[in-house]
Amino acid sequence: MSARGDRTPAWAALQAHFNAEGHAFDLRQAFAADPGRAEAFTLLAAGLRVDLSKHLWTARTRALLIDLASQCDVAGQRDAQFRGEAINGTEGRAVLHTALRAPAGAGPHSDEVQRALADMLAYAEAVRNRARAGELTDVVHIGIGGSDLGPAMAVQALAPHALPGLRLHFVSNVDGHDLAAVLPQLRADRTLFIVASKTFTTQETLANAEAAKAWFLAQGGTDTAAHFAATSSHRAAAAAFGIDHVFGFWDGVGGRYSLWSVIGLPLAIAIGAEAFRSFLAGAHALDRHFAETPAELNLPLQLGLLDVWYRNFHGFGSRSVAPYHQGLRRFPAYLQQLEMESNGKRVDRDGDLLPFATSPVVWGEAGTNGQHAYFQMLHQGTDVIPVEFIAVREPAYGFAPHGALKERLADQHSKLMANCLAQAQALMQGKSFDEAVRETAPTANPALAPDVLARHRSFPGNRPSTLILMERLEPASLGALIALHEQRVFVSGAVWGINSFDQWGVELGKALCHRLLPRLASGDTSGLDASTAAALRWARGA
Ligand code: F6P
User: Is 372 known to be catalytic?
Assistant: First the structure.
């Protein structure tokens, strides 16, 4: 039986540790005192090298957090997940995404998983062949949330591995501007539409799919069987929509965990069957690491425990993700759903209100763009926001640059790396008032006292960050990176005693939308609050 984190002796010990020394921990002193600190806090998993040394913790903090994991039986909860037990209590479902990336013969439901994978990959290869033959030029993937963010992010990340000449588009928003921007680029007879919806009831996706079908027919398209496919766990609904090629998956695969299932079809089309299998293998390697590695070296475990340490003891409310790779620019958006839809909960598994905070706000932007936008706040704002830097050592542009361009791109890559490392360094080191006084040159405003300016120019430092280092951004390493985040979210959810696999919080807004929609046509505002009524009248132009 797993205990909720706050009810364990380890939680009390962590609070005492925080009160005694944790709150006053200083990274600069820690590095000065221990030359082995970087090594002691760097972990390796599935080809990823992750430096956790710039975090506000000591060996003692880490040991206490590991005690917490053990008293919450995170290992037992993890094993139940891997065994395919029905750990999603409020929906009465197993959690099966790890089974989708297990090799043949391993993991629950292996035969069905392998059959579904083989079918999907055979179709993906057939689509690639149609593209090679010039019959298809565009694939439009229609889906939202977990049926969009994963494939859209991964296709972008692995663009250099994609079949040249086949364009992939992702349409998610119910706002018709999304679809309308794509349609003029297409020829109906050269386009494949994939409608992706686990439930096949999602308003945005069905609206876009209906519009795409209407456009296809209006363009003279006839062979809908060849130009429409669907990925859904509700095959019958997809078939009723008029789609012949429906690739199914199971209720136990949550939307935000479904990239490994047939929802990954656009990725498989882009990179091919073999590379898609490498993608799954990279994620599986991370799963094995999570399942088999002792706590002292277990990367997702320690990342998840750090999240608890920061959220519940330091009180930090958000985490920023800074991928220093243009291909990963949608990774923060992907993580937002993964983490906030999973752990943005206020009751535990028994329905009891939680007396502590859960999911942080996760946000970010590709480095170096974020540096020129909000890094000011990360360095000098009043909130401490841990930052997760992701660096990729070997660039890949999808072609081999040569001559002057090769040199210029190599130089740009060095600049990218230097920026990434410098930001982490700056967050940690800061700049004292004395240093700022020494460096402060006369300003354009002679009335400003030098010490006032120095206060503006000093940095508190001691701000924590993670540094995730990847050799290359390729199918296996991307799979491992995503699985790492899935499992770290699992760990914090397990300590908090919440169900990380339901998402009731999205339902109320959907239901109210369904009730308001007919009122937009009728103008009926009876019973509405005054603000909604006024906005509805405004939306009708009344
Ligand atoms: O509204 C949230 C949500 O239910 C997500 O959990 C899910 O990923 C998304 O909607 C899309 O759902 P579906 O795949 O069923 O269209």
Answer: yes
Pocket test for ligand 1, best of 88, 91, 199, 345 (most atoms within 8 A of CB): 199
486 a catalytic residue: no
Question: What does the pLDDT read at residue 446?
Answer: 81
Q: Provide, rounded to the nearest whole percent, the portion of the chain with pLDDT above 70.
A: 99
Q: Do domains 5-87+294-429+463-502 and 102-278 have the same CATH topology?
A: yes
CA of 147 to the centre of ligand 1 (A): 7
**Ligand 1 center from residue 202 Cα (angstroms):** 7
**Quick one: CA torsion of 102, 107, 111, 116, rounded to 10 degrees?**
-50
Atom of ligand 1 nearest to the CA of 263: 14
Collapse the DSSP code of 228 into the 3-class scheme (helix H, G, I; strand E, B; otherwise coil) and give the result.
strand
Q: What pLDDT is recorded for position 1?
A: 67
Catalytic residue, from 23, 372, 415, 456: name it.
372
Over the stretch 81-100, which tens digit does the pLDDT of each residue have? Answer: 999 999 999 999 999 999 99
Is the C-beta atom of 145 inside 6 A of ligand 1?
A: yes
Query: Rounded to an integer, what distance in angstroms lies between the CA atom of residue 72 and that of residue 1?
Result: 8
Are the C-beta atoms of 99 and 113 separated by less than 8 Å?
Answer: yes
Q: How many whole angstroms from 256 Cα to the centroid of ligand 1?
A: 8
At residue 304, the pLDDT reads 98
What is the CATH number that goes with domain 5-87+294-429+463-502?
Answer: 3.40.50.10490
The one catalytic residue among 23, 406, 415, 510: 510
Render the burial of 413-443: b for 16+ CB within 10 Å, e for the rest. beebeebbeebbebbbbbbeeeebeeebeee
| Domain with residues 102-278, CATH architecture | 3-Layer(aba) Sandwich (3.40)
Is the CB of 199 inside a 6 Å radius of any atom of ligand 1? yes
Going by pLDDT thresholds of 50, 70 and 90, the confidence category of residue 435 is very high
Question: Is 510 marked active-site?
Answer: yes
In the chain, where the domains are located: 5-87+294-429+463-502, 102-278, 505-539
Question: What local confidence, expressed as pLDDT, does residue 448 receive?
Answer: 86
Find the mean pLDDT for residues 309-327.
98
Predicted confidence (pLDDT) per residue in 40-58, tens digit:
999 999 999 999 999 999 9
> Considering only CA atoms, which residue is closest to atom 9 of ligand 1?
145
Q: How far is CA 100 from CA 14, 249, 254, 334, in A?
A: 37, 10, 12, 19
- Per-residue pLDDT of 380-412, as tens digits, reads 999 999 999 999 999 999 999 999 999 999 999
- Where is 87: in which H helix or E strand? none
